[in-house]
Amino acid sequence: MAVTSAGATRDGNAPARPRKNRTFLVLNIISIVAGIAIWWGLSLAGLQFPTPAEVVSAAWKMIQDGTLATDVGASLGRVLAGFALGSLAAVIVGFVMGWYTVARGLFEPWIQFFRTIPPLAMLPLVLVLMGIGESPKIFVIFLAAFLSCVISTYQGVVNVDRTLINAARVLGAGDGTIFGRVVVPASTPFILVGMRVGLGSAWGTLVAAELLAAQAGLGHRMQSAQLYYDLPTIFVGIIAIGVLGLIMDRLLMIAGNKLTAWQENR
Amino acid sequence: MSTPKISVRDVQKVFPVGKEPFVALGGVSLDIADNEFVTVVGPSGCGKSTLLNILAGLEQPTGGAALVDGKPVTGPGPERGVIFQQYALFPWLTVRENVEFGMRTAKVPKGERRERAEHFIRLVGLEQFADALPKTLSGGMKQRCAIARAYAVNPSILLMDEPFGALDALTRVRLQEQLLETWSKERRTVMFITHDVDEAVFLANRVVVMAARPGRIAEVIDVDLPYPRDEDMRLSPEFGALRNRVWHAVYHQRQIKEPAK
């Protein structure tokens, strides 16, 4: 009897993984449906929420008159510009800091200092100095992405296995080759982690910056909806921000997995 | 006799640790002839890896000189290939790309690079894994790949730092035999560091026994067993006698005052 059941378990082991994944997916779907149902219930019960149906119709209206596309475009444009510039600067500065002790000594105090300041706290100053166009918002996002990414890039460079550098040296590699063919690939996983954190931070900063000072964008849309007590539009904004953030994070994760598929323990 | 391939002349290495500097090597002298296979065995802290790193050009001696082909070693060079205990394969490169690494830095043209990589990958028996990433290989296969990579830049000297130290006993024995086979086809001067007495005797023309505090050479034992060496030889009484001698030289260093006979 015991033998039979043990055999059955072992036989059942092979398809266990997909079945478990399917269970997981089913649970996910149940959770989402239940969440929406509770939301619907609460709004019908007299809480000041719009019902899901109202939110969907508000979203549909915003899609048809093009405001959603304009807002998403404005927000994405800002975040991508700031994030790209910030990551690029972070990778360059991180490499320089990791490679040259002098640069590390010079950069470190400033980066540590500015890291403790939320980028949004810089917004009043930046608005005064740079006006109210696109540049102050992009700059604040740039700061957010840069500060999140620079330390991990630098850590990546510092943590490159000495043995790998020695192996390259005894194979005749000079400093340039060691940098390009050992240090850069070896620190890629660290850079990608930094970029993911940086993207999250950039997205959060963007929306807050738009709440304070913008003529378009998801944050701005929610801000003006607040004035008219237009809750469905606010809900559409929140959901759009969440969905876009999730999509960007997943895209970066997929790209990262492709780039670091060589890693030993995954 | 002509100039020895490797000549270590009164090499010292002192690390400034705290108040009392640590003497890793206290005046070591050793000559290794062309195409000789020398193993260096000794307890931890005897400076055997330091000696190898100095010959590799990865560390500088604080006294004395290390000469290769009569010229002092000032840094790493393509005539000296190094194999590390931790394999040190580039994990983002395939077996083939790892083997080609040194040839790429030496700007060997692509066609020739391919061909030579093929040759050495086949020599270590990894042809089926040429396009695999290191993470998919076993420890023994990784080290074979590292050996092919070192061979591919065509060094006249191979410096091996406990290359089989992290492998299980069976794999180690198999790799020792394969290494000798490779070496018999592609003869090089080899300095091989180990802490395994069996391994030291099985591979070498000559076993250098080192002692610690300060790091120095305690004894040099000639191994006059013929190549090719195989399992039968490993179990022979001659091998056993040499093994015992080396064992005593390593583990009873106090008692050794003169070469035992």
Automatic annotation (TrEMBL), chain A:
Q: Per its UniProt record, what InterPro entries does this chain match?
A: MetI-like (IPR000515), MetI-like_sf (IPR035906)
What's one GO BP annotation on this UniProt entry? alkanesulfonate transmembrane transport
Q: Which SUPFAM superfamilies match?
A: MetI-like
Where in or outside the cell it occurs: the entry states: Cell membrane
Membrane topology, as annotated = Multi-pass membrane protein
Q: Where are the transmembrane segments?
A: 24-42, 79-101, 113-132, 138-157, 227-248
GO cellular component, alphabetical, reads: plasma membrane
Major place of residence:
membrane
What UniProt keywords are attached to this protein's entry?
Cell membrane, Membrane, Transmembrane, Transmembrane helix, Transport
Identify the PROSITE patterns for this entry: ABC_TM1 (PS50928)
Where does the ABC transmembrane type-1 domain start and stop, copy by copy?
72-252
The UniProt similarity line reads:
Belongs to the binding-protein-dependent transport system permease family.
Kindly provide the name given to this protein in its UniProt entry: NitT/TauT family transport system permease protein
Automatic annotation (TrEMBL), chain B:
List residues of the ABC transporter domain: 6-237
Any one GO MF term held by the record is: ATP hydrolysis activity
Which PROSITE patterns does UniProt cross-reference here? ABC_TRANSPORTER_2 (PS50893)
In Pfam terms, one family for this protein is ABC_tran
Q: Which UniProt keywords apply?
A: ATP-binding, Nucleotide-binding, Transport
Record-linked SUPFAM superfamilies: P-loop containing nucleoside triphosphate hydrolases (SSF52540)
Q: Protein name, please?
A: NitT/TauT family transport system ATP-binding protein
Q: Which organism is it from?
A: Microbispora rosea
